[in-house]
Amino acid sequence: MNLGLKIGTILNSKYMTNNDCFRAGRKISPKGIMIHSTATPGVKAAAWFNLWNKSYQAGETNRQVCVHAFVDDQEIWQYLPWDHRGWHAGGEANNSHIGIEICEPGGFRYADASGSTMVDYDVAKQEAYFRKAWQNAVDLTAWLCRKYGLSEEDVIGHVEGFKSGIASNHADPLHWFAQHKESMDSYRAAVKKALDEEQAERPLGITVGTVVAIKPGTRHYYPGGPAIPDWVIQGSYHKVTQILSRGKPVVRGGKECVLLGKKINKKTEAESAGIMTWIDKGALIIIVPTAKEIEEREPPATKAAPEGNKYYRVQVGAFTKRENAEALLKQLEAAGFAGYIRS
Ligand SMILES: [Zn+2]
After folding, report:
1. How many CB atoms within 10 Å of residue 114?
2. How close is the Cα of 217 to the center of ligand 1, in Å?
């Protein structure tokens, strides 16, 4: 829930426990993110829950489909655990890709049943909605990239998945992006920018005990230093155990370096022997060490309220110190509530 990337819009989570996809219970190790758009005018992220939280096997719906999250101009709703195998691609990509649907605005219609020819779509009028939904999707995509050690190059559109033979024949989201002079390439560029900006915001504050991840795409521990194997970047987080040598900062290749002396298991947070290598501070992203990721756990029984229930968000505190907010969040989680910290 808190991997050091901010999402300006709240990430809401509840799982589609009645959907056969959820019930199938298969897991994936996410290798990429597939972007869709809904081709359904005016149905927003929260509304998809009741539309899709149904069982095909029980005859409640005529579609076998489920996706990890819907995004609109105001909200993000996560409906499957991120490492759950989704049914969004209609092909092999279901085994490897997290699926995100961007909700299209209302006020137009489709000429065709396959949903690729927009009619009466007023680009100027829809521009504000599009920009907000686009940014929410970019932020979520960047956050997921960080979470799973992916880069913008691992992000594809459904239409690209079709072209490379791992998804069904759909035009989304390109048919909509193109209306606003955007493409999957510009989407990837926006994700890269979000990742880079996040990195630029967090160069400081790394000290002994800080848990960090190595920025995906980093090739060397420091300029002119040894190459970093992939497993070091993707396999685990690391804990900084030393920032000085003989009382002085350690500078290598012109960069101030810190020592990664412990490995941290991404799921259990267990510590083990570290790689014991000095690395450029600028190549690191701070991972908030106390925030256990709620979405990686099975939802507790108290959380899985029946379909149709309303969900209310309650703010339980405002803090100037992040540690205090985290301490309260831990108490809440221990009591069976799902929580998040918003800054
Ligand atoms: Zn699609």
Report:
1. 11
2. 28
Residue 8's pLDDT band (boundaries 50, 70, 90)? low
Residue 88 CB-density burial (10 A; 0-12 exposed, 13-18 middle, 19+ buried): buried
Segment 91-133, tens digit of pLDDT:
999 999 999 999 999 999 999 887 889 999 999 999 999 999 9
Tell me which residue has tokens 């000429």.
Answer: 111
- Report the 3 state secondary structure along 99-143: EEEECCCCCCEECCCCCCCEECCCHHHHHHHHHHHHHHHHHHHHH
Q: Ligand 1 centroid to 174 CA: how many Å?
A: 10
Q: For the structural domain made of 11-201, what CATH number should be given?
A: 3.40.80.10
Tell me how far the alpha carbon of residue 70 lies from the centroid of ligand 1, in angstroms: 12
In the chain, domain spans: 11-201, 211-287, 294-334
Omega within 30 of 0 (cis) for the link into 173? yes
The CA distance from 282 to 279, in Å, is 8
Tell me the CA–centroid distance for residue 194 and ligand 1, in Å. 23
CA of 175 to the centre of ligand 1 (A): 11
Give the model confidence (pLDDT) of 163-190 as tens digits.
Answer: 999 999 999 999 999 999 999 999 999 9
DSSP letter (8 states) at residue 54? S
